[in-house]
Structure formats: structure tokens, C-alpha cells
Design brief:
By secondary structure, the chain is of the alpha/beta class. Helices cover 22% and strands 29% of the residues. It contains four helices and eight strands, in the order E-H-E-H-E-E-H-E-H-E-E-E.
Length: 181
């Protein structure tokens, strides 16, 4: 019997003009301490973070205390670190692997290309967006594909006097469920 698919939470920081960075190599040091604390807490609770190879290379090392799954088209990338796995699997196959390992949820941490893979496959269940108090005027978005997501607001709160966290559930036809954090 197939293990249940883990819940996928897309967790990203955005500027108020909807940018996740200036470019693919832009280090996310602009998000603030409150956002970083929330990211660490939610990703350690989930136990697994999924990201693309450019996001991983920007971070530069595995995030401690959780499984780091790095999606890459380069099959030669391998890791000897027990909490770091490189894979060229599809989004659905990655979730199957994670579910088989006993995880019930996963944090999807981008970038936009990896977010696209999960969104177009209809595999994102929730979005947790942190809005940082700045604008870039240009740069990367949350994802690039032309797909509309209908969302239901689950929660919102100030992380600090200047930063807002908004938590949404992705609405699906005929599915009504409470998936709050």
C-alpha cells in the first residue's frame, strides 16, 4: 500500500511588490530575523525542505535539523551528508520518496522553477508567505507558470512590527478541509 502523500507547504518570503529576489543568485538576507525564525520553526516541524539546486547553492550548505531534498537536472550531484539528497526525480516522485520515509509534510522553499513543478502538478496544499517591508521593482516571482491558484485565508499575523505572515490553503474542486498550522 502506498503511503499518503505528504502535505506540501510553499513557504516563501516576498517583498510587498511580490518578488522573492532580484535574481537566482540573490542571497535571502533581506527577509529579517522574524522570518528566518519562522522558516526554521516550520521547516524543522515538517522535517524536510525541498528546494532547487540554485536555491541550495545560494544557501551553500544543508539546513541543519531537517532532510534537505535538492532537485537538480544534474544526475552527477551526490552528497555524503546524511541529511542532504540530490535528485532528478519529478515532483510527484519526490513526494512519494518523502512519504515512504515517513514524513507527513514538506516545506517547499523554491526557487520559482521548483515551485512551478509542484504548482503545475497540483501538489501544493498551502502557502505561507512572509511580506518583507521593501520593494525591488523587478526580480523573481513566487513562480513563473501561468496557473491560477484559488486560496482560502487560514491565518495572518505580524511577525514583527514591519513583517506580515499570511497563511493560505489551496482550494481544490470538491475539497473542503481544515489544514491550519
Amino acid at each position: 500500500m502506498q503511503p499518503p502523500r505528504p502535505k506540501v507547504i510553499l513557504l516563501m518570503a516576498l517583498t510587498v511588490d511580490g518578488r522573492s529576489g532580484l535574481n537566482a543568485d540573490h542571497f535571502p538576507d533581506w527577509t529579517g530575523a522574524a522570518d528566518k525564525r519562522m522558516f526554521k520553526s516550520l521547516s524543522q516541524k515538517a522535517g524536510v525542505v525541498i528546494m532547487g539546486s540554485r536555491t541550495f547553492d545560494t544557501i551553500g550548505k544543508p539546513l541543519p535539523g531537517r532532510l534537505n531534498v535538492v532537485m537538480s537536472r544534474n544526475p552527477d550531484r551526490v552528497s555524503q551528508h546524511p541529511d542532504l539528497r540530490f535528485t532528478d526525480q519529478t515532483a510527484a516522485e519526490v513526494l512519494q520518496m518523502i512519504g515512504a520515509a515517513g514524513y507527513s509534510e514538506a516545506i517547499l522553499a523554491g526557487g520559482a522553477t521548483i515551485n512551478d513543478l509542484f504548482i503545475t502538478a497540483d501538489l501544493v496544499d498551502e502557502l505561507v508567505i512572509t511580506y518583507a517591508p521593501l520593494t525591488f521593482g523587478q526580480g523573481l516571482g513566487l513562480y513563473n507558470t501561468m496557473k491560477t491558484l484559488r486560496l482560502s485565508l487560514l491565518a495572518y499575523r505580524a511577525l514583527d512590527p514591519h513583517t506580515l505572515m499570511v497563511h493560505y490553503c489551496v482550494e481544490r474542486e470538491g475539497v473542503a478541509e481544515d489544514r491550519s498550522l
